[in-house]
């Protein structure tokens, strides 16, 4: 459990560093801060994804746990979209930011220690990561980048999603892992070093974005809805899907814990990169990171 708390502590400390640096003027506003997100989006995060996935075991991809997480993710995004349509009308791009915040979970710096020390098995984390990066990310990025409803705009948005660096990295990493090729150290070592910069850069930009804005000052209802769906709605959907898929015991427990993970910083990174829905993404990441631990402890008490 100490390693789980360490995972959360890492996030809060690096966010605090970003906030302090912004307060001191080391990290500037606007374009200066967004450079962190752009470097992470175009270089550091793809390197992290490829190096992680390329060294994973692809046999776990056929697990029903991964299927349950897929169903829960898509269904939660759909529920958010419907609620947005009827109760707090936003543009399609802003709705996508909230939908992603309600369903896109942190599978790396929180997911790995949680899986290892709470579930007792990290087998499902990398397949869940690939599911997000290779399947969900193209739709999320296309939605965030949507500029209109004409055919040219739709095709352009779809291409931006499919060709996003994180998506290409996940697909290439999966291919490398599936064929059993060992990437030479002369290639992998630089990628691992570059990938190590991804999470700190995103978290520091996140912390810097908190300067001058209070939590829930704007987009309060969409943020609360996204937070509630992430911590309560998605685990509930995963429970229903898990029972329908015949999961029980440790597999059902693993699916519920993964579904209750906090919103990933990548959601904020995507929103900041395309400069749409930043407030909802940022505040949902912040709230779910604080509130996910008691949510997971509740799941552990009931199903662990």
TrEMBL record:
InterPro entries: Mem_transp_PIN-like, Na+/solute_symporter_sf. Keywords: Cell membrane, Membrane, Transmembrane, Transmembrane helix, Transport. The chain crosses the membrane at residues 6-27, 39-55, 61-83, 125-146, 158-181, 187-209, 221-246, 252-272, 284-303. It is found in: Cell membrane. GO terms for cellular component: plasma membrane. Gene3D superfamilies: 1.20.1530.20. It is a multi-pass membrane protein. GO terms for biological process: transmembrane transport. PANTHER family: AUXIN EFFLUX CARRIER FAMILY PROTEIN (PTHR36838), TRANSPORTER AUXIN EFFLUX CARRIER EC FAMILY (PTHR36838:SF3). Belongs to the auxin efflux carrier (TC 2.A.69) family. This is ABC transporter permease. It comes from Corynebacterium minutissimum.
């Amino acid at each position: 459990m100490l390693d789980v708390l360490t995972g959360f502590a890492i996030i809060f400390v690096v966010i605090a560093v970003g906030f302090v640096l912004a307060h001191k003027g080391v990290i500037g506003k606007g374009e200066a801060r967004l450079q962190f997100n752009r470097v992470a989006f175009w270089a550091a995060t793809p390197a992290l994804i490829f190096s992680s996935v390329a060294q994973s075991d692809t046999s776990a991809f056929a697990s029903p746990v991964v299927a349950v997480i897929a169903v829960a993710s898509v269904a939660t995004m759909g529920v958010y979209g419907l609620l947005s349509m009827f109760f707090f009308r936003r543009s399609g791009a802003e709705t996508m930011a909230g939908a992603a915040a309600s369903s896109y979970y942190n599978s790396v710096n929180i997911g790995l220690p949680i899986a290892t020390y709470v579930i007792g098995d990290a087998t499902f984390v990398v397949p869940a990561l690939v599911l997000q990066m290779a399947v969900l990310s193209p739709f999320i990025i296309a939605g965030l980048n949507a500029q209109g409803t004409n055919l040219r705009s739709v095709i352009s948005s779809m291409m931006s999603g499919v060709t996003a660096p994180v998506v290409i990295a996940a697909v290439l990493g999966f291919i490398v892992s599936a064929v059993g090729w060992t990437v030479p150290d002369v290639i992998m070592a630089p990628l691992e070093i570059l990938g190590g910069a991804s999470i700190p850069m995103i978290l520091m930009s996140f912390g810097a974005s908190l300067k001058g804005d209070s939590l829930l000052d704007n987009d309060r209802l969409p943020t609360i809805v996204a937070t509630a769906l992430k911590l309560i709605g998605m685990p509930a959907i995963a429970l229903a899907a898990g029972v329908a898929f015949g999961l029980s015991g440790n597999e059902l427990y693993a699916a519920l814990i993964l579904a209750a993970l906090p919103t990933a910083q990548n959601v904020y990174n995507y929103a900041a990169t395309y400069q749409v829905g930043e407030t909802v993404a940022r505040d949902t990441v912040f709230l779910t990171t604080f509130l996910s631990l008691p949510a997971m402890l509740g799941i552990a008490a009931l199903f662990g």
